[in-house]
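Technical note accompanying the year-one report. For the benefit of new consortium partners, we illustrate the data format agreed upon in the data management plan: each record pairs a sequence with a structure-token string. No post-processing was applied to the example shown here.
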Amino acid sequence: MAVSPSSPALVQLNHVTKSFGPVQVLKDVSLGMNRGEVLCLAGENGAGKSTLIKILTGAIPRDGGEYRIDGQDVGSPSPAQARELGVGVVYQELSLLREVSVEENLLMGRLPARGGVVNKRELRARATKMLERVGLSRVDPGMLVSDLPVATRQMVEIAKVLGADARIVIFDEPTTSLSEEDAQHLLQLINRLKKEEGVAVLYVTHRLEEIFEIGDRITVLRDGQFITTAPADQFTHDSLIRSMVGRQIESLYPERQHKRFGKTVLSVQGLRLQGSPYPINLEVHAGEILGLGGLVGAGRTETVRAIFGADPIDAGKVFVDGTPLHGGSPQQAVKAGLGLLTEDRKELGILADLSIRENVTIADLSEVSRLTVISQRQEVSLVQQLVPRLRLKYHSTEQPISSLSGGNQQKVLLSRWLATKAKVLLLDEPTKGVDVGAKADIYTIIGDLAAHGLGIVVVSSYLPELLGICDRVVVLHDFGVTGELPIEDATEEGVLRLASSTPVSMNA
């Protein structure tokens, strides 16, 4: 459904401002969205993207400026009023109720009922139609959401938003937890919604290749201010990064140099994850960055958690710098020199209510205490030693970690493991939900840590990342190893080919 240049914008924000206390997070920001168009909103963490989304969806009121839909001033709508006006949002963290059926989730708040009794036949019919719209005709509407794969839950969420007659759909980092194949399916669906149904889409992602693949226009925010809006084809990869960060990033990935690796610091021998017949064998040397590749569900996260002792195993041995670990003991793993940066930063990483100081030191309090009494002075001293290495941006060691951007939270978590004098770091999706400027910093930090003799394992579903920073890539499928590629021979096609292969069995 083509939109002529003269068509009025479906959504228009004019000169919007917003402050939280003394901090102004949006300063004179304007944005327009047309029918049948994908507008990509780009900017680093802290640029104001999330605040702008909340204003569009009615989650928070703006302080100044106009909000118009169909040319009419809509004031500061509540979330319910915004939905009635046709605004829907698909967040990175889904809003579905896990232990409720798909059909009830789809029509939550709009269940077909009379006299308090739900008409199950009509519920099933409506839900089936909504699922078919997003290509989920094979999903049983009566299934619990908890029984669905992550990618399917994402599509159910989209079906729910579209089923509420959304004309304006906001996608906030929708592909973060999806495989490459599932992400492509989502992008194809968005293209169909725009072309066939004239839906206006606001698309927010840190993955620049998605912006260029799906975007018609790009609006850039930086430090809460509008920087530019232009057709996507008027940007290059480098010019977009420059607009977002306000500086030239010479290269996202550090320049690859010839390395000499040291002794083996991590040895995994015959490790079998629970219920898997396949042994996992791998070694990491001092100064080496080993990548773990594979599709969603291949067992990458489960492998690093098992190595760390956080998940039980059926068999196998793990040695850190020659010290054997006994399964199921993260405390022993930390003592031996192992650190784990978890995939889910919010749930399993940061302690949101604690300060930067407390988050850094909590993994090994013996370093900052005497006779079981914690010395805040020693904690501050330790943080101040570590922070310069990690380019952390903060005002005070006492500010809550939740006040930091995603990239700076990751740096604090890296500091936590450096504070334990770790010899091996297991990094599970280290740049998940992190903006492009912070990504470049984290890649440099990982390279610097390896150069100082740490052994590092990186799990990533983003293939350019694995190929850009790792020295070797081990590929998993079905909780087993399918192959290994030196970085000189590794390509995206080669990794994906191994990711679909059968692992080496016990009898091989």
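Partners are asked to follow this layout when depositing records. The chain has two domains: 11-245, 264-349+422-499.
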